Amino acid sequence: MSTPAPSAEVSMETIVALCKRRGFIFQSSEIYGGFNGFFDYGPLGVELKKNIRDCWWNDMVRRRDDVVGLESSIIMHPKVWEASGHVAGFSDPLVDCLETQLRYRADQLIVFKVSQTNLLEGQYNPPGETVGWVAVLEASFEEMFKRALKRLDVLRDVCKLRGELSLESANPRSYEDCWQEVAEKTLGPDAKKAVGTLKQPRAFNMMFQTNVGAMTDASSVAYLRPETAQGMFVDFKNVVDTGRVKLPFGIAQIGKSFRNEITPRNFIFRSREFEQMEMEYFIHEDADWSKAHQEWIEWCRSWLLSIGLPESHLSLYEHKKEKLAFYSRGTTDIMFRYPFGVQELWGIAARGSYDLTQHANASGKPQEIFDEATKKKFVPHVIEPAVGTDRIFLATLCAGYAEEDVTDEKGNVEKRVVLRLSPRIAPVKVAVLPLLKNKEALTQRAQALYKKLQRRYAVFYDESGAIGKRYRRQDEIGTPWCVTIDFDTIEKEGDTFTLRERDSMSQKRITESDLFALLEEQVY
Ligand code: GAP
């Protein structure tokens, strides 16, 4: 018996607390105070992440005839990153605050206009006159506005403003777009003593540098890859020559990428070390790229639904033509409604033949394919769906988390935390629970089932505590099913167990073979 609580939006604090409490994610190097932008995945976290990765790999590579896999090295020849444009252009606009020495991304600093409605000390300002600007870090609009409102008091103190101030909420702008106009009168997001301390934005390259070999000089500089995609371009000819592939076909890769993000934040949403799952889908230069692009957008959206993300949290954002790189034909992002706002989850870009052409020019090795029909060589074009595993991980937790009031048979109401993860990705698929731990017949049967399940699935054996408490522990980590070995199992014919379903909390009796059939159907 349960009454789902009204679906309140979960806060990031709740998700972070759950991750720590149940061992999904820890701060990296926590005993040394943590390391900003880096995270460790704990025992349940690695299972969930591995399941997301495996689902993607199975669906993207193994279950398709037109996509093959690759694992390229993380550190590649530095010329790769010159040819790709990353050395010259993989940068974010960085803004320094002279007062606090803090740094921000200019495109994430949102500036609100502040008007005086009556008196500024010693002089009269007509109502509506702009007296300053308040910059706050990007978040959902509501939160941003609240933060800007709070900072009005600081602005008032700093500028000795008197009387009523009003904040223009309708049209906030990014500092990147308007710094020339507003710089002198802007209160930085953490400043307390002065306005005008935010500097002009400057390009900051986000690639991590290292040195390869015994010498540490300019000639030994190399980079940790900021994306996995370049591996697929650089190995394009190797795959074509050895992989028995024919256009259209894709090369997929899962692996770590590294970016020295100026403002890593929102937990694992934007970190400095993260995992990407990328696929480069090569098509004929004359193929209908727009159709291929649309098909991949739909494939990615359906795949997210297949691992349990709700449609209500997903939306599409088409990048404006004027903001695209010159070679790009179109980019659409699948957006997800996180607690901190609607943000990019998966980017699907139509990149023309830019990347292969760049590498052909820089290496002197043609990156072409021979067209049997026209007897001509050409450079294929590419559609690139690129997603971060960690962002999917976070999305599944945010969408799956719920707190419910549950009424037991005696009428007592209690709270249960439940993580509604799809069985495809849940870290534990089944919990095996003997009703009593001091009854050998029960524990023996439970152990036998547990061992058998363990050969194929991630399962958990738990014999301590009241059965209700054990169910709750599994609900909180998203285990879709609990199997209880009770007296009916050992005393009645049929060797059946109680199967308890996480979301509905309904219970029914099930045989071992039916349990395996259920798992076979739902965990794939
Ligand atoms: N090869 C194209 C590329 O890398 P991107 O939009 O920069 O495109 C692709 O990255 C995906 O990687 C993003 O949609 C996001 O899911 C993930 N991602 C990018 N930067 C990230 C970061 N700092 N932390 C976590 N995930 C990130």
Helix and strand arrangement:
Blueprint lengths: L1 E2 L8 H10 L3 E3 L11 E3 L1 H20 L4 E3 L8 H7 L1 H4 L1 E6 L6 E3 L3 E8 L2 E2 L2 E2 L4 E9 L3 H19 L5 E10 H8 L3 E2 L14 E4 L3 E3 L9 E3 L5 H6 L1 H7 L6 E10 L14 E11 L5 H18 L7 E5 L11 E9 L2 E12 L1 H10 L5 E3 L4 E3 L2 E8 H12 E7 L5 E7 L10 E5 L5 H15 L4 E3 L5 H11 L3 E5 L1 H5 L4 E6 L5 E5 H11 L2
Parallel strand pairs: 4-16, 10-12, 26-27, 26-28
Antiparallel strand pairs: 1-24, 2-3, 5-6, 5-13, 7-10, 7-11, 8-9, 14-15, 16-17, 17-23, 18-19, 19-20, 20-23, 21-22, 24-25, 28-29, 29-30
Helix pairs in contact: 2-11, 3-10
Bound molecules: glycyl-adenosine-5'-phosphate.
What does this structure look like?
This protein is an alpha+beta fold. It is 31% helix and 31% strand. It contains 15 helices and 30 strands. The strands form 9 sheets. A 7-stranded mixed sheet has the order 4-16-17-23-20-19-18. The protein has a 5-stranded mixed sheet with strand order 27-26-28-29-30, sandwiched between helices. Helix 2 packs across helix 11 (389-400) and helix 3 (78-84) packs across helix 10 (354-363). It is globular, with a radius of gyration of 28 Å. It starts with a strand and ends with a helix. Bound molecules: glycyl-adenosine-5'-phosphate (GAP). Glycyl-adenosine-5'-phosphate binds at residues 227, 229, 259, 261, 270-271, 274, 276, 278, 344-347, 384, 386-388, 390-391.
